Amino acid sequence: MQPLRHGACAHIDRQAIAHNLQTLQHRMGLEKTGRSPRIWAIVKADAYGHGLEHAVPALQAADGLAVLSASEAYRCRQLGWSKPILIMGDQQLTRDELSDPALYPLHWVVEHEGQINQLESLASVLQPHVWLRFTGNLHHAGFQAHHYRPAYARLQALSAAGRLGGIGHFQHYANAEDPEQLAAERQLFAQLTIGLPGPVSTENSAALLLSARAAANTDWLRVGLALYGVSPLPGLDGAALGLKPAMAFQAPIYGIQELQAGDSVGYGSTFRAERPLRIGLVQCGYADGYPRAATLGCPVHVPGGMAGIVGRVSMDTLSINLDQHPHIVPGHQVTLWGRPELPVENVALAAATIAPQLLTGLTARVPRVAQTPETPASQPDKRHQ
Amino acid sequence: MQPLRHGACAHIDRQAIAHNLQTLQHRMGLEKTGRSPRIWAIVKADAYGHGLEHAVPALQAADGLAVLSASEAYRCRQLGWSKPILIMGDQQLTRDELSDPALYPLHWVVEHEGQINQLESLASVLQPHVWLRFTGNLHHAGFQAHHYRPAYARLQALSAAGRLGGIGHFQHYANAEDPEQLAAERQLFAQLTIGLPGPVSTENSAALLLSARAAANTDWLRVGLALYGVSPLPGLDGAALGLKPAMAFQAPIYGIQELQAGDSVGYGSTFRAERPLRIGLVQCGYADGYPRAATLGCPVHVPGGMAGIVGRVSMDTLSINLDQHPHIVPGHQVTLWGRPELPVENVALAAATIAPQLLTGLTARVPRVAQTPETPASQPDKRHQ
Fold it and tell me: Cα separations (Å) of A318 from A311, B49, B66, B178, B369?
């Protein structure tokens, strides 16, 4: 099914993704721990909304890709990825999938007894590498503390019989962006796994950026949000961490309205002009994934500077105040997020949400296209005039 | 591109869509106005998120389909629709599109001078039917009052030369769900068009349900939200208006956690159990389009009754309180909206948004499948056990 033609479009900067990966690797390399941890680049949720077809080629320098489901893993293989793939959220891999050489090297997060049963009954010459998940404080999946070692022992028996590629230790932190709670979660996990051999994968972007040394002392880091140029830490944006935004979400101005004093705009007439006001109508609405919670003044960028939303965001349209931008005409592109002046973090804040929700919330009608930096964004597209 | 396998799925009930259309037609028919208005069934935004492939076959009894863009119009034609199509939001139809017999019978909303210029310069034997749009209080597009009659005169000259199929009058109300403001908007439009021949299309679901007689006195109604079983009027749900929900949004339970007193669940540990608590983990998150703004207690339905969300909705997971549902196990389906006990209107209210935002906000990874009523929803799927 082809994407339908529509105004809003997400421009994906593959070089920014590659740059962000390199920045994170460099940061880790600065820690002289004697280890050199490898990196799982997280590309679940269609690469956080950026499109696997753009992210996978940009992540060649990663050691592996981490996805949620077997379907995503197959798409990565179709896109030419030959290094390890970690499936993190699919407890129901079929026998055929586990026995399919196309998926290997395959790493699989084991978070449920049923998966161990399945591995025990599997007659396959292939050896998946498994990662035993501790439920930790998140409680989204995985084994509780008193079940962890018995589960490990069963996996170890399989491994001794030559049926596994290896056994690792795995956890998602519930509070990776809070230094104190992060330290407590790390300690709990260290106690849990004391004396158990095997690589450790517990650290994410936030943990790496908050305490690089502790993160560099593990074996496989999982970096997601930061790959796309977005800060996982509250109060900082990606640029402050040396990251570049990978997505510029844009839509064209399709009309101008000259409001008179007293005129309203949008459904429910929630905005009324106090004096004559020039507004721009932008071909983007909540059916594209733009947050309906964005209210008066939520920032957007137009060629020449910043502007703000007026009136309610509707299904297909949002309107902006062009009082300070008399030169803007139909065909000009409005950036809704993803410029240096307008990180997605700021829009998330104005819309009472978080950046990954905005990135992954774009709908099917928004095409994700590789960025063409040569397009002069300051010139209006004639088709709209 | 195939949709990726994932837990969340939107089940579309085509019979409900057909029923809702019939209900609206019946309501209109009860008004003995001497006219018998025709109906544009609105299928923009991929049929409000339900999928054109499901909606178009269910809307055979409509007089025409209304879409936003030429791409959507082409998809309706590919799906076999041969009656009129109204393109409402595409000011930039190309010469080729306007001259393509495949799009006809074609109706086109004219909201900009550039479109009239284009029609004047078009040498085509085909005759589009045009609808002149008044900007009204919405100010999203269209001609202001003092430009309306001059624009009409230009179109009339084209029509006299045999180059148009007809000229209609068109408006979107800004406040259709408020009886007083609706009456004022209707009056403004009546004054604007006094003495101008041509059919009128101003009424939507809300206007029809609020004052059927006034709506039945126009020529073409545009019904959208109500077709999908959702009330366009605040304080009422679809069932109260005789409508049936067309979408049941469901996802499976993939895990159970037995929390101890003091245990937290989810990122940020925003929920902490005060006593031992059984929670269910549901394979649906904000990357599916489920609202992250849904907080503690936001209702869901499980086989046997209602339950509520605990903890933060994350990218791929949400968790629910199963204290009252000891029989629920992995594989059971959770309905997130779209059952008689759980209209989408209620979820929208709990998440501080509106129903069409939820429906159109589902992302590409949620398959839209035709409902198979024979599936016994109360039995868990074995694959998840």
Answer: 8, 19, 20, 22, 31
User: Does residue B97 sit at the A interface (CB-CB below 8 Å)?
Assistant: no
Q: Which of B185, B363, B382, B383 is the best substitution to test chain A (most A C-beta atoms within 10 A)?
A: B363
By residue count, chain A amounts to 385
Distance from CA of A289 to the nearest CA of B (A): 6
Estimate the crossing angle of helix B113-121 against helix B145-160, to 10 degrees.
10
Which chain B residue lies closest to A267 (C-alpha atoms)?
A: B174
Degrees to nearest 5, angle at CA A334 with A328 and A338: 145
Question: Quick check: B1 pLDDT over 70?
Answer: no
pLDDT per residue over B222-265, tens digit each? 999 999 999 999 889 999 999 999 999 999 999 999 999 999 99
Residue B363 has pLDDT above 60, yes or no: yes
In angstroms, rounded to a whole number, what is the distance separating the alpha carbons of residues A58 and A78? Answer: 15
Distance CA B347, CA B355 (A): 8
**C-alpha–C-alpha distance, residues A68 and B155, integer Å:** 56
Interface predicted TM-score of the whole assembly (ipTM), two decimals: 0.94
Q: Are B48 and B58 in contact (CB under 8 A)?
A: no
Instruction: Tell me the pTM.
Output: 0.94
CB-based contact A269 B137, cutoff 8 Å: yes
Query: What element of type H or E holds A37?
Result: none
Is pLDDT above 60 for B163?
A: yes
CA of B250: how far to CAs of A5, A93, A364, in Å? 29, 21, 19
Instruction: Give me the active site residues of A, please.
Output: 44, 267
- β-strand B38-42 against B247-259: which pairing, if any? unpaired
Number of neighbours of residue B25 by Cβ within 10 angstroms: 18
Burial class (CB in 10 A: 0-12, 13-18, 19+), B217: middle
CB of B114 within 8 Å of a chain A CB? The answer is: yes
Residues from chain B that touch A317, judged by Cβ atoms under 8 A, are 140-141
Over the stretch B79-117, which tens digit does the pLDDT of each residue have? 999 999 999 998 889 999 999 999 999 999 999 999 999
Which residues, at least 6 apart from A49, have a Cβ–Cβ distance to it below 8 Å? A10, A247, A359, A360, A361, A362, A368, B287
Give the distance from residue A194's alpha carbon to the nearest chain B alpha carbon, in angstroms. 23
Which residues, 6 or more positions from A379, have their beta carbon under 8 angstroms from its beta carbon?
none
